[in-house]
Amino acid sequence: MAGLMPMPGLIALVLVALCGLPGWITAAAPANPDDAAAMRVLANWTDAAAVLGWGVKSGDPCDGTWAGVSCNDAGRVTSIVASRGGLDGVLRGSDLAKLTFLSELDLSFNRLTSPSGNLPLLPTPLQHLRSLNLASNRFIEISEGFFSGFPALETIDISNNPMAVPELRADVLTFSGSLRSFSANGLGFMQVFPDYFGNPLVFPALETLSLAGNSLFGKIPPSFGNNSKITYLDMSSQTHDIDGKSYLTGRIDEFIPGMKSLVEVRLDHNIFFGPLPDATKLVNLRVFNAASNNLCGVPNFAGGVSVDLSGNPHVGNPC
Q1: Which of 133, 169, 313, 318, by CA, is between 20 and 30 Å from 57?
Q2: Residue environment code for 129-153, b if the CB has 16+ CB neighbours within 10 A, otherwise e
Q3: Could you give the CA distance from residue 234 to residue 181 in angstroms, rounded to a whole number?
Q4: Which residues, if any, are the signal sequence (predicted)?
């Protein structure tokens, strides 16, 4: 009769109803018990249970009811994205270290700290973590050994935490081979500019370096960034709290022309001096901001580049 399902199709539906899904259709795997336990602890300590509903409908973080949490087919937690999630509490390194398959962690723009107040120190490294964002929280210091917890890291952002006198130490070299993006703006670093970031032998994959709004000082060497892959460079506004002045200096005509991959560069509000660089061979350059320095000479940029050289009284005149 027209409109009726053919008998073979009807039999297949009945078998599915009676026996369950066939073997080639797989449901999401339940969470690994260790991952589930670690996530429940994390939910309680960060207030994610209350504000994001973690664990309210189900104790399984891999069943789709935990907002921002993703798992692989084996039930291992691989990604936690809870930026601007309203989290307010304590992030413990001992809990994070148990999520051994975690590859992405974004807890930016919350109100998190740690038992010590510092960025959380892991007892064992997270070997699979590729992306870490803890920007704009309440961490007050960078623990010695913090960076060692992430040997495969590709992108990290720890900007705009209320740190007193943080310091970049040698353990930042832990992930030098894989690192593509390093952002640590507005932390108050008061140390010599870490020019090793511009060495392609040390950081061969680095594309983004953003250290704006700190108190870094010293002279940028002519070799900085030469033949590197850096496309975005921001070392603007290295202002000291004591006198409101910048002590970051150097000749930009010596190091900028060698940074062939540059797309956007921000050097404003420092004390760079000397001639403007010849940027005509920087074929990818789109934004160049060197406002409020002590530069001189006639601008020489390719068409289509947004250039800000305001606050340099000698620009336009021969050096």
Answers
A1: 133
A2: bbbbbbbbbbbbbbbeebbbbbbbb
A3: 12
A4: 1-27
Using DSSP's 3-state secondary structure scheme, residue 27 falls into coil
Q: How far apart are CA 121 and CA 169, in angstroms?
A: 14
State the CB neighbour count (10 A cutoff) for residue 267. Answer: 24
Are the CB atoms for 236 and 267 separated by under 8 Å? Answer: yes
Q: Taking residues 26-31, report their average pLDDT.
A: 70
Task: Give the containing element (helix H, strand E) for 111.
Answer: strand 111-113
Collapsing DSSP to helix, strand or coil, 15 comes out as helix
Q: For residue 11, count other CB atoms closer than 10 A to its CB.
A: 11
Residue with tokens 């406002």: 291
Helix (H) or strand (E) holding 44: helix 33-46
pLDDT of residue 28: 65
Q: Residue with structure tokens 């305001």?
A: 310
Examine the pLDDT at 10 and tell me if it is beyond 70: no
Q: How far apart are CA 236 and CA 210, in angstroms?
A: 9
Q: Which string of DSSP letters, residue by residue, matches 286-299?
A: -EEE--SSEEEE--
pTM beyond 0.85: the answer is yes
Distance CA 149, CA 105 (A): 13
C-alpha dist (Å) from residue 228 to 122, 219, 231: 31, 19, 9
pLDDT band at 8 (very low <50, low <70, confident <90, very high): very low
Report the alpha-carbon distance of residue 261 to residue 259 in Å, rounded.
6
